[in-house]
Every structure is written in C-alpha cells, then in structure tokens.
C-alpha cells in the first residue's frame, strides 16, 4: 500500500497541473472566482458546489492566494464556515482536501501506477456539516503565487497576517457568509500558527476592522506546538506504545535526563541510548514541498493558547493516538499546563458503539477546550479514521459532548 500511495503522490504533480488547466479555462482572470462543475478523474458533474479563485493580499495585492471553497452539503446558510489550513509549511490546501477532510479523494483501488488517478467521493467529508475553505497558504504553496520575488521571503508572522487579510477579503467577496459562525481549523504545522491567527483576527475585530469576522473558536489536529516539547515526548511515547523495551527506555531516561531533543554531543551514554531507539526505522516519504525562504519565528504556540484561554472561544484539540511525530502525550501536557478546570474527566467517546478514542473537557470562565484522541490514527488523524473524525467535529461544532 505504501508503494501505491507513493505512486499516487508522484502522479499528484501531473494531476494538479491538469487541474490547474481545468480551473483556468473556467476562470476569466486570476482575480475572479469560478464555480467548477467537473474535475479530471471524475466522469460526472460534481454533486457539490465547488468554487475556486484567487484573493490578493499584501501591497497592491502582489500576493495572490488560491483557494478551494466547498459549500456545506447540508445547509450553507446555517452551517459554520471553516478555514482549513494545511501543514508544512508548504502543503497545498489540496492535500487537506484530497487526503483528509474534503469531499473527494484519489481512488487507490483502481490506480495501477500509470496515467492519472481517478477521483472518488468521500462519504465522511467535513463538508457534510460545514462550509470549508481550503487555502493555499502561505504564498508559494500550491497554486498561490507572488508577482514580486521579495514576497516569497516568508515567516510565521507574515503567514499569519496574510491569512487574516485573506479571510476578511474572502468574506467581502462572499457577503452571504459574513453572518455564519467562523472557525479556524488545520493540523500539523498549521496548527502551530492557528492560535496566532485567531489572536490576530481578534485584534482586528476589536479594532473594528471590516468586515467583522464572527469567530467562535478554533480546532487543531496532531498539532505541532513547541518543537522541543513535542520531540521530548517521543521517547516516552515509544515506550508507552510498547515500541521499545523497558531497558531501552530506562537507559535513555537516565542518561539523557529527559532531554531527547537537545542532544549533548559530550554525553556519549545518551547518544548511545538514543541510537538503540532509532535503529531500524524507515526513512520518511513526503507529499509536501518545504518553502526555501521561510523563517520559523514562532518558537512556541503555548503562549498564544494561554492568551486564548482568557477569551470566550471554544477549542478542539485532537490527536491520533498512534502519531509519533507529535505524540498525544506532548499535546495533552501543554493542554493541562494551561491551568484550566476539568469539566468532564477522561473518558472514552463512542462511534457506532465502538470506542473511537478518549476525551477530556476543560473550562476557564467562558473559554471551553475539548481534548480528544482518535484511536488507531496517526499523523494526521482524518486520513486514518474519517468516520470517527467526522463524528467528532460534527458533535463539537453543535456543542454536543463527544
């Protein structure tokens, strides 16, 4: 299966090139929007409303941000609006769309490695319960581009500001959605910037920037939050999941003193212990390209979560419990360090009479945070457990207990 997925990913560039052609023959100019009724790999008219287009941001709109917008398949006027940000940075919104929570996916069962993959409809798309914008953010990702070379020099903080401007300008072009509840959503590296983006939007709202965004909260999955803390929890996670022996874990714990990220080259015992733990692993494969001129200037998202804990927003933080990139242990640790009050203690949550994971709910005044694990899911959770993840987000958006 891994070889087949890799083959699909290799064909992904060809498919997206063809998709871009299809999109542009339906679009009068880069600044306009188009309703897309057909896509390569799908023989019928699309059974949902898909709009694509560009929104200009930055000086003189020199940055053009591409997006895919899907109206809710239930009630576009009443359902919330989600801005989905894919990780990386450098992963197109098409990744989140086709591999995670969008209404179509690549058909692995019929793809033999030649030609272009066909598309299939996803029964458990998040568009079943929400309007969703997939943005190619930051600029240089996917089909987004800049007309000036200096605009490709990016950072976390620049990306956050561009995201806020993009959303406000998108709403100006789609005024019928201004009154819808808005949530900022995403996973992996995007989840690190989401709390920063939420605060930026909040500041704009407080300064009466138009249009006002009806922001209600945010949801983040398998969230990269603080590189040191995330990686330091990997070794305990490996032991917790019975991937390494008690002896290996105790040796690393004793010699490294809990510091697995900042490896001291003079500490030979620690290096030897960690070498025994990475031994025999398989090199990773990538479906996203990393941006070359990008400054990672948000060291940790924890202070931003702390600031948001003083607001009226609600948050959903979820983790695949088999994710070794960002172990749920790391995520749960910073959640608990926010010093919130436990409102609903650790318990299983169910889908189709089966345990889908475990959840715990926290509150602080008007702030409400739900933490959830998704049983058997990796990085990122909706790729592995679409049924459970749709049930989770549907319940959370409707303010029902998981």
From TrEMBL:
It is found in: Secreted. Keywords: Carboxypeptidase, Disulfide bond, Glycoprotein, Hydrolase, Protease, Signal. GO terms for molecular function: acyltransferase activity, transferring groups other than amino-acyl groups; serine-type carboxypeptidase activity. It comes from the Eukaryota. Belongs to the peptidase S10 family. Its main location: secreted. Residues 1-32 form the signal peptide. One of its GO terms (cellular component) is extracellular region. GO terms for biological process: proteolysis; secondary metabolic process. It comes from Sesamum alatum. This is Serine carboxypeptidase-like 17. InterPro entries: AB_hydrolase_fold (IPR029058), Peptidase_S10 (IPR001563), Ser_caboxypep_his_AS (IPR033124). PANTHER family: SERINE CARBOXYPEPTIDASE-LIKE 7 ISOFORM X1, SERINE PROTEASE FAMILY S10 SERINE CARBOXYPEPTIDASE.
